[in-house]
Give the backbone structure.
Amino acid sequence: MNKAIDAECLLKIHRLVRECGQQAKQMSTQPLQVFEKSRHDYVTNVDRLLDQQLSQGIAGLFPQDGIITEENAHSRQSFQSDYSRFWFIDPIDGTSDFIHGKSHYAVMVGLLESSQPVAGWIYAPDPDQMYWGGLDLGLFQNTGCVLPDAVASEPEIAYTPLILKEPTPPSQSFCPVLIGSTDRRCYGEAIAHLIPEAQFTSIGSFGLKVMEVICGRAGLYVYLSGRVKLWDTVGPIALARAAGLVCCDLAGNPLRFTPDAIEPETLTHHQSIIIGWASYVEALRSRLQKAVLLS
C-alpha cells in the first residue's frame, strides 16, 4: 500500500469491527426490524445502526479517504471522485442468514487503493473469528478477544498467521465448489451437466464463502447473478489475492475495480466473479462459462 496503515490504526480497526460484530450478535437475540430495499434484498435496524458506527469510526481514523457504505446510498456518489483510497463497509454481509438466526454472516471492511483491493477485514461474530490482512500486510486470523489494550504510543496486535492449505486438485471424486442459492437455481443444472464431478456447497456471506476457499475447504467460488457490490467484494478479494488465489471473470479476465467496470449508481460489478485455486480455475472456468451460455 502506498499509504501504510500504522499499528495503532490496525488495532483500532480490529476493535471497531469486532465490537460492531459482537453488538450485532447481541441484538440478534431481540426482535429485528426488517425492511425490503428491493426484491429479495433486505436490511435490518442492526445493519443501519452498525453502518453508521463503522463509517464514523473509519472516518475518524482516515479523514482524508473516501468512505462508502452499503446502507448510505449518498456515500456511493463519492466513487466518482478523485480519492486515491476508498474504504468500503458492509455492516452485515449475509443479512438473510442474520435475519433467520443462522451463523454465516459477517462484518466486513475493505480498502481500495488506486482501484485495487489492498486490505480487508472479515469478522464472523458467532464463532468470534476475525480474518484480516492484504497484499502488503500478510494474512492473519484471530479468534476471541486476543487483542491487548493499547499501551502508551506502541499498541500491539496479536499476529496469528493464517495457514493456507491448498485443496487436492479437482477429480471425479473430489471437486468442492461454492455457489450461491440464486446462481444454483439459475445455472446449477447446466453446471452439473458439464461438470458432473462438482460438489456444490453454500453459506450466506460472500466474504465467508471466499474464506472457505482461502482456507482450502473449497476449491472455487463462482458468483454469476450480477448483484454483488463493491462493499461485498473489496475486502474478501484483497484477502484472496494475498493468498495467491485467482480472481477473474468467466472469460478469464482479471477483476476490475475502476469506475468504468462498475455500475455507477449501485456500485454493482459488471463482471461475473470467480475466486479459486489455480488448479480449479484452470479445470473448471471454461466449462462454467459454457454452462452459463447454455442456461
